[in-house]
Amino acid sequence: MQIFDKKIKEILTDNLKRLETYFNSDVVFYFGEIHPSYEKLFRDFIESLKVDEEEDPRDRLTIILNTPGGSAETVEKMVEIIRYHYKEVYFVVPDYAMSAGTIFCMSGDKIFMDYSSSLGPIDPQVFNGTTYVPALGYLDKVNELLAKAQAGTISQAEFLILQNQDLAMLRSYEQAKELTITLLKKWLVDFKFQDWECHRTDPEKIGNMVTQDEKEMRAQEIADKLGDNKIWHSHGRMINITTLKRILRLEIEDYSENENLRPLIRNYNDFLTEFIARNGFKVFLHNRNYF
Predict the structure, then answer these.
(1) What local confidence, expressed as pLDDT, does residue 132 receive?
(2) DSSP labels for the chain?
(3) Is the pLDDT of residue 1 over 60?
(4) pTM for this predicted structure
(5) How far is the CA of 74 from the CAs of 34, 36, 49, 126, 131, in angstroms?
(6) Among 4, 124, 144, 281, which has the highest number of CB atoms less than 10 A from its own CB?
(7) What pLDDT sits at residue 138?
């Protein structure tokens, strides 16, 4: 088994180094939930790349991300760690990056996806004492019951449900929503939009300089739409590249037809995710110095 694992490591590291050459960057792979207990692990994981770069450090990091989501607070910490070491960050989403994973991607300078990749609504995950649950679903339902109460159409059963809500917990859900939107807006403006200088799509503004206020308005628009359950209807909704471009007007690097990059990503990601599935790993990190 040790010989088998060693061979797998060699193949994966070889594939990863080819991606490093293509992107001219350090490349890391992250699979699994984004959880507070992984913060120190992630810090050490990123620092392990800098050991052999003391004389010629790289300024760009490419993150290949597969995650169902998790904690927005942890995403904030991970972004702080990454941006301490790197000036430029790319995200590659071969399969999916949901919820907090979508927020994570919005902290990048570029996002790479193909036709089968997905992001998700930014419904923040909050811990209810037992497990992580989507906050917006709770808030939407409570607001619905409040509207019924104001209109005088609430049933006795619904009134009892509303009466038994934990106000402190509801406030924590509101705070999670506010944090999610704040982070998304800040990172879009600071990183994703930093090179956006001229309007390119609005017929009335093409060629005009983009103002800071316009960048902030676009970031707010994207945050509002990604957090709108009326658009997506489900916390687990898979949002493909076409929808991201059409509804959110978000700039995505599409590698669907890139005959050089697509095989590099597929060969690396598909082989590694199959290895993870066979071994039942809940979280898995890989870089050229860490397996």
Answers:
(1) 67
(2) -HHHHHHHHHHHHHHHHHHHHHHTSEEEEEEE-B-GGGHHHHHHHHHHHHGGGSSS--SEEEEEEEB--B-HHHHHHHHHHHHHH-SEEEEEESSEE-THHHHHHTTSSEEEE-TT-EE-----EEE-SSSEEEHHHHHHHHHHHHHHHHHT---HHHHHHHHT--HHHHHHHHHHHHHHHHHHHHHIIIIITTT--B--S-TTTTTSBPPHHHHHHHHHHHHHHHT-HHHH-STT--B-HHHHHHTS----EE-TT-TTHHHHHHHHHHHHHHHHHHHT-SEEEEBTTB-
(3) no
(4) 0.88
(5) 7, 5, 20, 12, 16
(6) 124
(7) 72
**How many Å from the N-terminal Cα to the C-terminal Cα in the chain?**
15
Helix (H, G, I), strand (E, B) or coil at 33: coil
C-alpha–C-alpha distance, residues 235 and 62, integer Å: 27
